[in-house]
Design goal:
Number of strands: 0
CATH architecture: Up-down Bundle
Helix content: over 70%
Radius of gyration: 22 Å
Structural class: mainly alpha
CATH topology: Na+/H+ antiporter like fold
Shape: globular
Order of helices and strands: HHHHHHHHHHHHHHHHHH
CATH class: Mainly Alpha
């Protein structure tokens, strides 16, 4: 197919999704599952218009998935408005730490015992499959800044944190593929874990808070209604990511924390100078600033209010980020569908069942005990461990960092197959289960 033919096909797909949005929302299937089916249709399993082998395409897939993950992490962080000390964060911290480590260990043991995969390679596979996906989990995570539901908050925080928190264990898996000394292991623990994780979070949060506060103040002072907010978002993403990398910290964590920092700059701005309408209604908690403004109709006199400037800034970042995120979801899930014909491994069904049905639910149920979640929330948190673009990034990363041959092929086949199974299984269950959950929560309230 020519470039124009691919452009026409892409336009037809996007037009179909745009016009049938209301119908798709009523169907018990996620958009990611639809895009996966489209990828399968244009790949060797369907019309055979495109073939992708990750062993050959790993360098450009690594960069493409890297962009998708950091953009999604930033927008995801911006949605989380509650203070870090709020109890809704506690389950997220556990999911992204002890539950993630237990899942890595569980997947490694299952791969070793059930599929006879080398223990070091099995650990690396567990680390690759560790992150839950911030791109594909939109139906079960926080959809707007006023959503404080503990289940959605836990899954949102987990998806933001463990995309970066899994990186040390991917590096450890790479180290364990060869001979490793105690000094190298100590260096990994000190630099890659104890330093890189908190340093990335602190750097990103500080940059987000600083840049957000400065942008809000300058916009209000200059009454600037035409500032390029998309440039600001891209600059903050780039500076937090590259800055973290420069000091040996994890860039994914820095970008996620930068989104949270920018959001907390908005919270600080409306706390110091509330929106006039909120002031008149004497609201106890100031609503998100973006919910009180319409960016396209704000006048220069209104922009002088810091709360209005903050609302316009956040609303425009959301609009820009959501559009790019949806486009990248179409592209990357489609790539997974195309590559599935090349990398499908039926034995992955056994490992996928172990991860989705046993390892993740058991770890979540046990390790979220005594957290601010009820039984139903713990059960659903265990089920919604959606794997996706983050795992594809880590797979491409290890393929470009020394894993090749039979080991690389085995990792690629297992990862692509399990991600596809997760997209289908969770795509078919997420909307019905969350609608049922929302109804139960509404009745309890």
């Amino acid at each position: 197919m020519s470039f124009l033919s691919w452009m026409a096909a892409g336009g037809a797909l996007l037009l179909t999704m745009a016009l049938s949005s209301a119908l798709i929302q009523r169907l018990p299937v996620s958009t990611a599952a639809i895009y996966l089916g489209v990828g399968c249709a244009i790949g060797p399993w369907g019309f055979d218009l495109l073939q992708i082998d990750l062993s050959d395409s790993a360098p450009w897939i690594e960069r493409l998935t890297e962009i998708a993950v950091i953009l999604s992490l930033f927008v995801g962080g911006l949605r989380l408005r509650l203070p870090l000390r709020h109890q809704a964060w506690r389950a997220a911290f556990r999911l992204a730490s002890v539950v993630m480590i237990a899942s890595i260990a569980g997947v490694a043991v299952c791969a070793w015992l059930l599929l006879d995969i080398d223990p070091a390679l099995a650990l690396l596979l567990g680390a690759i499959l560790a992150p839950t996906d911030p791109v594909l989990a939109s139906s079960v995570t926080v959809g707007h800044s006023q959503d404080n539901d503990h289940l959605r908050y836990a899954l949102s925080g987990e998806a933001g944190l463990n995309d970066g928190a899994a990186f040390p264990f991917v590096v450890l898996g790479l180290l364990l593929l060869g001979p490793i000394s105690m000094s190298e292991l100590a260096a990994w623990a000190g630099l890659r874990l104890l330093w890189a994780v908190p340093a990335g979070l602190l750097l990103g949060y500080g940059l987000g808070r600083l840049v957000g506060s400065a942008a809000i103040a300058l916009r209000a002072r200059n009454r600037d209604t035409a500032a390029p907010t998309d440039f600001l978002a891209l600059a903050l993403i780039a500076l937090s990511y590259t800055g973290a990398t420069a000091i040996g910290a994890w860039g994914f964590l820095a970008v996620f924390a930068a989104g949270i920092g920018l959001r907390h700059a908005e919270v600080r701005a409306v706390g110091d100078d509330p929106h006039p309408e909120v002031e008149q209604s004497a609201a106890e908690v100031h609503p998100p600033a973006e919910s009180l403004v319409s960016p396209n109709t704000v006048t220069e006199s209104e922009m002088a209010q810091p709360a209005v400037a903050a609302g316009v800034l956040v609303a425009e970042v959301f609009s820009f980020g959501d559009t790019l995120e949806r486009m990248l979801e179409v592209l990357l899930v489609g790539i997974v569908g195309v590559s599935l014909a090349t990398h499908w491994d039926p034995s992955a069904l056994l490992l996928a069942a172990g991860l989705i049905v046993i390892v993740r639910p058991a770890a979540t149920w046990l390790l979220l005990a005594h957290s601010p979640t009820n039984r139903l929330q713990r059960l659903l948190s265990g089920w919604f461990g959606i794997r996706g673009i983050g795992s594809i990034y880590y797979l491409a990363y290890v393929l470009t960092h020394g894993v090749a041959g039979t080991a690389g092929r085995e990792l690629a086949d297992m990862t692509i197959s399990i991600v596809a199974v997760s997209i289908v299984v969770h795509g078919l269950t997420s909307q019905p289960l969350m609608r049922w959950y929302d109804r139960r929560q509404a009745r309890r309230v």
